[in-house]
């Protein structure tokens, strides 16, 4: 008698990419939006089998501050109803997120908000989906073209707090290290940076692949809390 082979259970992966203009994909003075989540979704769907459906929602709002609008937006999103989607769906909303990819703080630093206030709000905002079972991929704040010692110091302090988040279920992606500005050659800088603050379509695509690679590595069990490459 032939042994019974169990049928694999289909799996759904719900990912929320949340932040400001760097999540929305702002470039070319706002005439073009190419969110990095598009490339993240493509990375996942090209590497996962047909039994895994990926629902990815991009929730970026240009000009928004962590310390002003993020909490209200996150609470609204987590209360929203789920919507059906197929394999590889973009902008799907779900009440239960498996992963939150969080990027924010650039605008707050520019407006002079205190590092402590920014970090406390990041902590509280990310705690909202975590209380519902989500894990978090927390991105550090990338540099920009402005050379300002005070801004650099405050960004460094904020990123140190982000890297030091040791809550269970929180993982770090050091975007500051992976998407430099000043250390790049002119050709590479023009390719991925749009205006010294935002990225080009190619830059957002690079971020999306970096996020996808990091997430998939964590899910597969091969990477720790902090990325080391």
TrEMBL record:
Annotated ranges, domain SGNH hydrolase-type esterase: 17-205
InterPro entries, per database record: Ester_Hydrolysis_Enzymes, SGNH_hydro, SGNH_hydro_sf
An example molecular function term from Gene Ontology annotations: phosphatidylcholine lysophospholipase activity
Gene3D superfamilies: SGNH hydrolase
Record carries keyword Hydrolase: yes
Keyword hit for Hydrolase: yes
Keyword set, alphabetical order: Hydrolase
Protein name: SGNH hydrolase-type esterase domain-containing protein
Lineage, broadest ranks: Eukaryota, Fungi, Dikarya, Basidiomycota, Agaricomycotina
